[in-house]
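Fold it.
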Amino acid sequence: MRYVSTRDNSKEYSFEDVFIKGLADDGGLYVPTSLKKFSPEELSKLKKLNYNDISTEIINQFSSDFISKGDLSSLIKKSYSTFREKEVVKISNVGDLKLLELFHGPTLAFKDIAMQFIGNLYEYYLTKNNKKINIVVATSGDTGAAAIDAIKGKSNLNIFVLHPNNRISPVQRKLMTTVEDDNVFNIAIDGNFDDCQNIVKQMFSDLDFSKSINMSGVNSINWARIIAQAVYYFYAYFKLNVDKPISFSVPTGNFGDVFAGYLSKQMGLPIDKLIVATNENDILHRAISNGDYVSRKVKETLSPSMDIQLASNFERLIYYVNSSNSEITSDIMKKIKQNEFQIDKSNLDIIQKDFVSESCDEDETLGIIKENFEKNGIILDPHTAVGVGVAHKLSFNDCVVLSTAHPCKFPSATDNAINKHEELPKELQYVHGKEENFQLLKNDTDEVKNFVKSKL
C-alpha cells in the first residue's frame, strides 16, 4: 500500500511515513493510492472472526510493509486487553435503534479504540529505531485523554496535549490533567478547539521546528486512526447478521469517525447512508445538505467534542469527490482557509449518494436524553443523544448509532436533563480528588513552540 498527500499526489509514501508524520509537509492529509475491495465471499469469511482478528485482517491491508501480520495480531491483542468488553465494543438497543457502544476502553470514549493501538504502534516502531518522538495533539475533549493513556510512561515518547481552556467537561479535563507521568504535558489554550487545532497544524507546517523535535501527531488526521476506527463498522455489520445495507448515525465534529465509515463502504462493506449528526456547530450539516462550508463563530454546547467549525478530515472527502485531483483539492483548501468555499452542485450530488445530515440544538439534545431515560431506562451522553436525535429526525428507524462516550463524562448535561448522572467507574474515581497539572497559554503558536522546546 502506497500513500499520497491530498494536496500533491505526485510523490508516494510508505505507511511508516504516513503514521510517524501524521500530516504531510504540504499541509495535506495522507490517503492510499488504491483500496482493497472485499468481495461478498471475503466478507463472509471475515464475519466468522472475533473483533481482534477482524482488526488484524483490515489493518494489515494498509500496514503490511511496516509490521508483519503476526506482530500486528499480537499488538492488537495487547491494545485491547484492558477494555471492559472482551469483544472491545458492544451492541445494545435504544428503542428502535441499535447503539454501537464504543466507550469500553480506559478513558470511556471511542478514541481509546484507535489510541491504544497507536500507542503500541509507536512503541513497536521505537524498539526498531533509536529515536525520540514528540507527539503534539489538539483535543476537543476525548482525544487528549485517550492519547495520554496510550502514551504515558512509554520510553522515548513525549506527548503535548492542547485543550481549549474551560471548554471541555471537568471530567474530560481531569482524565488528562491528573496524569503524573513525566512524559505527559497538558496545555490549556485561551481559545476554542479550532484554535488549538490551528496551532498544531502551524507547528507541523514549520518544517524546521517539526523536524527538529521529531514531531508526530495522533489527531484524527493520522491515517492509523482512521483504519483502526473502520474496524468497528465491519464488526457491527457482521454482528447484526443482516443481508441488506445498513445505515450508521455518527455524532461527529472533525469528520474522522464518519470518514472511517466511508472508507469501510469503499472497501465493500454494505453501508447505505452515513448520517452526519452535528450539534449547533453545524458546518458539516450545512455543507452536506446545501453545500455551505463557511465557518461561523463556535458555540459552546453540552456536547463539547463537536464544538468545531473546521472539520479536518473533510479534506479527504473533497479529494475523493474531485476524482483524486490534488490540484483542485489544494485550491479548495485555500478557499476554505479564506472562509469562502461553497460546494458545487455536481460534487454535492456525489457526496449525497453516501451522506445525509442533520443537527440538534441544546433543547433537543436535553429532550432526547430525558425521553430515552424515561422510555428505555438508558442514560445517553450528549453526543450519542445527538446521534439518536438526528436518526429520528431523518426517519432512520433501524440504523446503528455510534455511542461515542460514557455518560459519566458529562454529568452537567445529564443532571440538566434528568437530575441524575452516572458515576465514573471505580478505577477512575481517583481523578476527582487529585491535583491537576496544566499550563495555561495564549492562543499563540510561538508561545506553544517555546513551551514545548523548554520541556525537551
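Residues 411 and 421 are 5 Å apart (CA to CA).
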